[in-house]
UniProtKB/TrEMBL annotation:
InterPro entries: HAD-like_SerB, HAD-like_sf, HAD_hydro_SerB1, HAD_sf. It comes from Streptomyces hyderabadensis. Residues 1-35 are annotated as: Disordered. Signal peptide: none annotated. It comes from the Bacteria. This is HAD-IB family hydrolase.
Length: 295
């Protein structure tokens, strides 16, 4: 199943990382929160990636990087650009858009070696992703690390890309969608289903069992109502940059909320609101132009 496959891939990656030299990146100096409890070895933290840890969707940034390396043509980039612009405007995941993006990515990487995509993923992180990490969320993750806890990304993005991001942020590892490979070459198929919605909760539960974690002492962070099953698993759920449905749900259950996107908080993390609006408008215009060229 998707959750078990993701959990197994995450544990293998984390075990390999223990023997490698860690890579740490600094945050913006955002104050460390009171939670988590220091020294609690049965607690861990699980972070959604898209719009929680990073602005935008990892799969779209990855697509931009692959286009730059001529993995596909301009007409395919139009689809990635349109989906990314919509994602940034809406602020939450649309299942149809995300499924289309995954299908596109699978067809693009089919026949390529896993090692090749991992190497390219490192480059794409530096080119398109590093500057889009939310400093506030990064500080939350660091607080768990400083408390001696493990921190995992949990995302529908390909597990190889998620592992690159986790390693570059100094996190423990990542749960992600697992693409099938034979002999180190992608087949263009998935192992199980994409790690989305309830599948994330399944993967977190499987990893917690394998790691002997007490979920009531763990924390989870997400921006999307699609992740309510994962957030509901843990004793310390956080709504980060929440969509309207998650915000309403979080307020009803008195979950903690953090929003780093607009107003005073956006300025605090170094993202002026006016600049953000301009970026969205520019991205939308570019997407529309590309979409029209296809017709």
């Amino acid at each position: 199943m998707a959750g078990e496959a993701s959990a197994e891939a995450a544990r293998k990656s984390a075990e390999a990382a223990e023997t490698a030299e860690p890579v740490q990146e600094t945050d913006s100096g955002v104050a460390e929160p009171e939670f988590p409890v220091h020294g609690d070895e049965r607690a861990a933290a699980f972070f959604d990636l898209d719009n929680t840890v990073m602005q935008g969707a990892a799969i779209f940034h990855f697509g931009r990087g692959l286009y730059k390396r001529k993995f596909f043509e301009t007409r395919d980039l139009a689809r990635f650009a349109w989906q990314q612009a919509w994602f940034r405007l809406a602020g939450f995941e649309d299942p149809e858009h995300m499924q289309d993006a995954r299908d596109s990515a699978l067809s693009i990487v089919k026949g390529h070696r896993v090692s090749e995509l991992k190497s390219i993923g490192e480059e794409i992180y530096d080119e398109y992703m590093a500057e889009r990490i939310w400093p506030g969320t990064r500080a939350l993750a660091q607080a768990h690390l400083d408390a001696g806890q493990k921190v995992w990304l949990v995302t529908a993005a390909p597990v190889e890309i998620a592992q690159v991001i986790a390693r570059r942020l100094g996190l423990t590892g990542a749960l992600g969608t697992v693409a099938e490979s034979i002999g180190g070459v992608y087949t263009g198929k998935l192992v199980g289903e994409p790690l989305h919605g309830p599948a994330k909760a399944e993967a977190v539960r499987a990893l917690a069992a394998a790691e002997a974690l007490d979920l009531s002492r763990c924390a989870a962070y997400s921006d999307s109502h699609n992740d309510i099953p994962m957030l509901s698993l843990v004793g310390h759920p956080y709504a980060i940059n929440p969509d309207s449905k998650l915000r309403k749900h979080a307020r009803e259950l008195e979950w903690r909320l953090r929003d780093y996107r607009t107003g005073r908080k956006a300025a605090k993390v170094g993202i002026p609101a006016a600049a953000g609006v301009g970026a969205v408008a520019g991205g939308t215009a570019a997407a529309i132009a590309l979409h029209r060229r296809r017709r």
